[in-house]
């Protein structure tokens, strides 16, 4: 169950909200000619009155026949209890009989969600009373709205109510007046616990509750409008069974989910009683999702459930609609047969299992129509209409199933043909790589499946994701752009598949280094997702997560942190704290923290790793990414030994799970190589960097940042090993790559030229070194301090050309 923190209520110190018995305007009994006893003493001002062993403290409430008092029990234990007494002037034989029936009904039950009876007896005046559990609580709907419980938490609480009602039914007791004010929520052990109260109109199904005469007469309405079942609205008083309570539970469920009743209680009471009862018996209320979209207070209802109106409608559509409507079926034979059946279907919903409730068939709806209008329309005509409706429904369903089947078969056939290229016979002895298969498939998509645009889009998304994981981000962007365009044209901007394509495109654009374009794409996916699906939908949360990373990369840390914090809160509430999306957002939130405090981020990540290990396992990509982040944070905090140990654990996992060319594996290998370099472990660094370069080059990424950075670091390794010629070769590669990427007039190119000057100077190539150094300064290199102190340039410092270069470096550009 969702844990709810108890919040202070608006009440006087030392007082609680106890069991409240509200007057029932429509509950009545026709009294017989019973004579009343002598007028009993009034308790209106009876504070301090003794009913041994109890002392009355204050009146808590009153109903049609009784009063409830807070009392103090003095022996054999000292405690506070609620005392129920017969109201002044209401001590007829019938009322006394009903009072004793309620007392007996409560005494028969023993369940944590039903208020307990401790004692029973007579007042000094000879009137019956009973002492029961004093519940400090509030109506279940009031409690849920006050603490703003999401609908899932409300369902968890409601399950307990169903369990209590089922217990009463097993004891042979029908409540007959279930409603929120008779289900109070109290806090026990920091958890909310519902308590069912007021069995004043309860009915026994298998035994007598009292020896006194007790009967129900025709023409008597028992219950509360808005919650009574259609069979109670018949007012026959006959044949009321446990399914009447199931109906009332269904009404409460409807109200908990939507914030409103199936029928407006004000509108009900404004009608003559016969019209009101006819509406309860015959008129079908709207589904919860429809009612929420109609209600003027839908914004407030959504806010009280920590969501927005569009998302609330989306949550209710389908299974929750079916469950609620099955519980309040007019025809009780189609209702849940018991409270436990209703509880079981809610549990199935909460655990993502198929629910037994389903939408009424077209044929059933037609039969109901015929029964209501049998005098206005011929049965034959309506029978044909029912068959037409049923046939049309089946045809639509069959067409949808066939479309999905054909799409799945088309995708399967395409992939089979694509992977057939890896067959040794098809390959004819050639080595076929994953890149080869993807390239072949991408070329086929452009020429085939032109008449099946949604199949093409689905394949493009799948292959685009594969390209991106391999680090081939430009190729991924091309395919995902086409998929997004196809889905936008065929499905519209607000379709979940279109939004998924948009998010995947933004991720690929970011991977390819097109940051401004990626931010624009992801921001549109995020904004469209909020409007179409709501801010709590996993597609919207995924877009927020990626957008946060793009924003962070541009140095807008506050904006990134706000995105992550909001997405994490919503993901935790909607999907759970250990859902992979929640865990991924937590990792990236720690990355934002690391920009301010690597040590704090390392601590956060160390606490997150055990959860990841338990939830996804040690060879899951998410765990590998978390290990990499943890190592990076420790490195940034100066704890190089622990950073090295974690990186050494993470690198083989990343290579195994993600492949040598993946972004995570490349980052890890470069970080660990840098750590090795700093520790003088040059052979280890060389081995890692060579693996990194081979993996990236096999993937065809000849100029990406990992290759350029790895070559730069490897050249430093070679230089420390006095392998100057190999170092110079790598420095020339880095210079060429930077020129291709940035042009000539760029500080990165100037730094590459400076590094070439250093390595050629170490080889004694004096003139060549001075030439490179002159080019570096010409291209903007202005680090005079390095020119004067770098030991690699020692051999050049007694040369007049060197002094002229230094003087030029001192001159502002």
Characterization of this structure:
With 813 residues, this protein is of the alpha+beta class. Helix content is 58%, strand content 7%. It has 33 helices and eleven strands. The strands form three sheets. Strands 1-2-3-4-6-5 form a six-stranded antiparallel sheet, covered by helices on one side. Helix 17 runs antiparallel to helix 18, helix 29 runs antiparallel to helix 30 and helix 30 runs antiparallel to helix 31. The longest helix is centred in the middle third of the chain and has 41 residues. The radius of gyration is 38 Å and the shape is elongated. The N terminus is likely disordered.
Number of distinct beta strands = 11
For the sheet with most strands, the description reads: 6 strands, antiparallel
> How would you sum up the global shape?
elongated
Compute the number of helices. Answer: 33
Instruction: List low-pLDDT spans.
Output: 1-44, 205-220, 375-432
Overall pLDDT metric: 77
Computed structural class: alpha+beta
Q: Could you tell me the strand content as a percent range?
A: 5-15%
Strand order of the largest sheet: 1-2-3-4-6-5
Distance between the termini: 66 Å
Provide the helix percentage: 55-70%
| CA-atom Rg in angstroms | 38 Å
Topology, element by element:
Blueprint: E1 50-51, E2 54-62, E3 66-73, E4 79-86, H1 93-108, E5 117-122, E6 128-133, E7 138-139, H2 140-146, H3 151-170, E8 173-174, E9 183-188, E10 191-196, E11 203-204, H4 243-258, H5 265-270, H6 273-282, H7 288-294, H8 298-303, H9 309-316, H10 319-327, H11 339-350, H12 362-372, H13 379-419, H14 424-427, H15 434-447, H16 453-469, H17 473-491, H18 496-511, H19 515-532, H20 538-553, H21 557-574, H22 580-596, H23 598-615, H24 621-636, H25 640-658, H26 663-678, H27 682-698, H28 705-720, H29 724-742, H30 747-762, H31 766-778, H32 784-789, H33 800-810
Antiparallel strand pairs: 1-2, 2-3, 3-4, 4-6, 5-6, 7-9, 8-11, 9-10
Helix pairs in contact: 3-4, 3-11, 4-10, 7-9, 10-11, 12-13, 13-15, 13-16, 15-16, 16-17, 16-18, 17-18, 18-19, 18-20, 19-20, 20-21, 20-22, 21-22, 22-23, 22-24, 23-24, 24-25, 24-26, 25-26, 26-27, 26-28, 27-28, 28-29, 29-30, 30-31, 31-33
């Amino acid at each position: 169950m969702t844990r709810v923190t108890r919040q202070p209520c608006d009440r006087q110190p030392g007082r609680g909200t106890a069991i409240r018995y509200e007057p029932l305007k429509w509950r009545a009994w026709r009294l017989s000619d019973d004579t009343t006893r002598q007028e009993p003493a009034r308790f209106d001002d009876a504070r301090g009155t003794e009913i041994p062993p109890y002392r009355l403290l204050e009146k808590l409430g009153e109903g049609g026949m009784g009063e409830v008092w807070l009392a103090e029990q003095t022996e054999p234990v000292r405690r506070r209890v609620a005392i129920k007494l017969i109201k002044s002037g209401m001590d007829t034989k019938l009322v006394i009989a009903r009072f004793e029936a309620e007392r007996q009904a409560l005494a028969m039950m023993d369940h944590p969600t039903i208020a307990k009876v401790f004692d029973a007896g007579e007042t000094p005046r000879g009137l019956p009373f009973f002492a029961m559990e004093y519940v400090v609580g509030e109506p279940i709907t009031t409690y849920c709205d006050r603490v703003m419980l999401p609908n899932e938490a409300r369902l968890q609480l409601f399950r307990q109510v169903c369990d209590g009602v089922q217990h009463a039914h097993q004891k042979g007791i029908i409540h007959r007046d279930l409603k929120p004010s008779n289900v109070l929520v109290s806090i026990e052990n920091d958890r909310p616990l519902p308590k069912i109260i007021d069995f004043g109109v309860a009915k026994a199904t298998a035994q007598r509750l009292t020896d006194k005469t007790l009967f129900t007469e025709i023409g008597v309405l028992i219950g509360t409008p808005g919650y009574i079942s259609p069979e109670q609205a018949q007012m026959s008083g006959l044949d009321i069974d446990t399914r009447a309570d199931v109906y009332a539970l269904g009404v409460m469920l409807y109200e908990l989910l939507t914030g409103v009743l199936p029928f407006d209680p004000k509108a009900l009471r404004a009608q003559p009683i016969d019209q009101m009862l006819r509406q309860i018996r015959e008129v079908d209320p709207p589904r919860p999702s429809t009612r929420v979209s109609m209600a003027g207070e839908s914004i407030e209802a959504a806010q009280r459930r920590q969501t927005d109106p569009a998302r609330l409608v989306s949550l209710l559509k389908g299974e929750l609609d079916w469950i609620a409507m099955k519980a309040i079926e007019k025809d009780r034979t189609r209702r849940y047969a018991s409270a436990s059946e209703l509880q079981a279907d809610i549990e199935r919903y909460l655990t993502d299992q198929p629910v037994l409730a389903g939408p009424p068939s077209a044929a059933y709806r037609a039969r109901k129509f015929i029964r209501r209008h049998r005098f206005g329309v011929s049965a034959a005509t309506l029978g044909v209409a029912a068959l037409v409706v049923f046939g049309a429904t089946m045809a639509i369903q069959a067409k949808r199933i066939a479309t999905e089947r054909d799409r799945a078969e088309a995708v399967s056939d395409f992939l089979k043909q694509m992977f057939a290229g890896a067959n040794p016979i098809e390959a004819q002895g050639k080595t076929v790589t994953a890149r080869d298969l993807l390239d072949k498939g991408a070329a086929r998509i452009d020429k085939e499946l032109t008449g099946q645009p949604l199949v093409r889009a689905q394949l493009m998304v799948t292959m685009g994701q594969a390209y991106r994981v391999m680090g081939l981000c430009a190729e991924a962007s091309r395919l995902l752009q086409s998929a997004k365009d196809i889905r936008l044209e065929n499905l519209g901007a607000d379709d979940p598949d279109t939004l998924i394509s948009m998010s995947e495109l933004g991720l690929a654009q970011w991977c390819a280094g097109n940051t401004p374009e990626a931010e624009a794409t992801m921001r549109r996916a995020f904004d469209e997702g909020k409007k179409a699906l709501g801010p709590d939908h996993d597609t919207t949360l995924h877009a927020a997560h990626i957008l946060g990373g793009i924003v962070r990369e541009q140095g807008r840390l506050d904006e990134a942190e706000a995105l992550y914090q909001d997405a994490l809160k919503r993901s935790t509430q909607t999907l759970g704290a250990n859902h992979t999306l929640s865990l991924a957002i937590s990792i990236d939130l720690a990355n934002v923290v690391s920009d301010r405090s690597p040590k704090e981020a390392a601590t956060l990540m160390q606490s997150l790793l055990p959860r990841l290990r338990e939830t996804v396992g040690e060879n899951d990509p998410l765990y590998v990414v978390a290990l990499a982040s943890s190592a990076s944070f420790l490195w940034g905090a100066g704890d190089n030994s622990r950073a090295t140990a974690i990186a050494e654990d993470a690198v083989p996992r990343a290579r195994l799970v993600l492949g040598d060319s993946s972004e995570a594996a490349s980052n890890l290998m470069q970080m660990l190589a840098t750590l090795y370099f700093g520790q003088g472990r040059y052979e280890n660094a060389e081995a890692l960097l060579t693996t990194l370069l081979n993996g990236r080059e096999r993937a065809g990424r000849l100029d990406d940042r990992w290759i350029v950075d790895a070559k730069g670091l490897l050249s430093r390794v070679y230089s420390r090993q006095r392998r100057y010629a190999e170092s110079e070769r790598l420095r020339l590669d880095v210079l060429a790559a930077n020129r291709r990427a940035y042009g000539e007039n760029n500080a990165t190119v100037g730094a590459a030229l400076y590094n070439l000057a250093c390595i050629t100077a170490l080889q004694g190539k004096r003139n060549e070194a001075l030439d490179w150094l002159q080019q570096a300064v010409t291209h903007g290199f202005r680090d005079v301090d390095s020119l004067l102190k770098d030991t690699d340039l020692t051999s050049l410092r007694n040369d007049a050309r060197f002094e002229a270069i230094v003087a030029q470096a001192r001159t502002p550009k």
